[in-house]
Fold this sequence. Notes:
Elements: E1 5-6, E2 10-13, H1 17-28, H2 31-34, H3 46-63, E3 68-74, E4 80-90, E5 96-106, H4 115-129, E6 135-140, H5 145-153, E7 157-162, E8 170-176
Antiparallel strand pairs: 1-2, 2-3, 3-4, 4-5, 6-8, 7-8
The protein binds coenzyme A (COA).
GO molecular function, one term: acyltransferase activity, transferring groups other than amino-acyl groups
Organism: Nostoc punctiforme (strain ATCC 29133 / PCC 73102)
Keywords: Transferase
Amino acid sequence: MTNFLETERLIIRSWIPERDAEQAFVIYNDPEVTHFLGKASLVTSVESQRQRLIDNIEQWHRRNNGTGSWAIVEKETTTIVGTILLKQLPDKDGLPTQDYEVGWHLRRASWGKGYATEAGQVMLNYGFNVLNLPVINAVVKPENHASIRVTERLGMKPIGRTNKYYGIELLLFQLDAPEE
Ligand SMILES: CC(C)(COP(=O)(O)OP(=O)(O)OC[C@H]1O[C@@H](n2cnc3c(N)ncnc32)[C@H](O)[C@@H]1OP(=O)(O)O)[C@@H](O)C(=O)NCCC(=O)NCCS
């Protein structure tokens, strides 16, 4: 299995549904993790988690534009500690726009270690340097203070509230590609 990206403490790699479903389930079966992600994010069985990973991989293959969601693996323990994603923001009908977002979900036991920021930084670099995106966005529910702090640590600029994506009101953060 080839690693997609690497940081000091983390490996970012593709999901392997057969092998990873149980560890993904630890993340998405936890209402504390899915609280700000919407009800549909809560997974109730390992089997449905496996199917969700399979469906996601198929979706990224269909899009075939370098976007996706990847497993964050802690090097020290080889445990999957979360998900990092870079994808097109959906409009209110769920259709992909031409705006791209970075996103992070960590299992509860791995909060407070800086992993979302570390994985977010390498994903931003990938978006700017490999996908040549001019701007990368993050959208966060106004009450999700932990996620807002991640955008701050990444140097993303607060733009204000928006209704353009997901059919709900969200706070928008942006980072421009570094100047050549
Ligand atoms: C959003 C979420 C990923 C943030 O997790 P987090 O652990 O707070 O963020 P980071 O991984 O960047 O870690 C930063 C924290 O680790 C601490 N930390 C410890 N060691 C660190 C290190 N080496 N480097 C950076 N920060 C470190 C920081 O002080 C900070 O804690 P603080 O906010 O209490 O000051 C997490 O709360 C989560 O998964 N929530 C559920 C899913 C979700 O809502 N996702 C966002 C949707 S928009």
